[in-house]
Amino acid sequence: AAGFILKEFQSHRIQKEYLALVKGKPEKKQFTLTAPIGVVAGAHRGVGEGILKPQSATTQVEWLASTVTHSILKVTPLSGRTNQIRVHLSSQGLPILNDEVYGEGIGESYEYGLHAWKLSFQCFDRHFEFKASPPAHFHSFCEGLGKEIGLILSKLRANDLMILTADHGNDPTWVGTGHTRARVPVLCAGL
Fold first, then answer.
1. How many C-alpha atoms does 130 have within 13 Å on its Cβ side?
2. How many whole angstroms separate alpha carbon 15 and alpha carbon 121?
């Protein structure tokens, strides 16, 4: 089984999704980065003119939310280049939080802004999906994102009704890795 999975990785048939905390805000909700990645100096990678041994690279990005200074992105690398996500996002002015090589470090902090969130693949007749909850420093960052709800609520007029929901449930008693529709969150405000 290990040999099979290794071949799947090498053939880029393993789907990987990452969550990235970045400085700045993207210009679009969804975008794809396709700049070839090559060697700049030593082990450092980059994009653009002057890179050595450029190789094609494709990274899909979805903007999930932002605060005033930072954003959370869902990132899917479709090729497997060294430091691909870090290089592509930095080249767009969206450096990963606490990335000392392609962005700005935060002194003694080990709270890195790139998290391997989901891994999925087909193994013979079964589909496997594994998710890893974001680390604690992601949670505290995400709490600030809810502040925008207050702004929306302040815009409601008399007799307005706002309903927020999700496309799948989040049942804390479910031990599986898939989604459940048993408990779909619904938040209402107004009237």
1. 7
2. 6
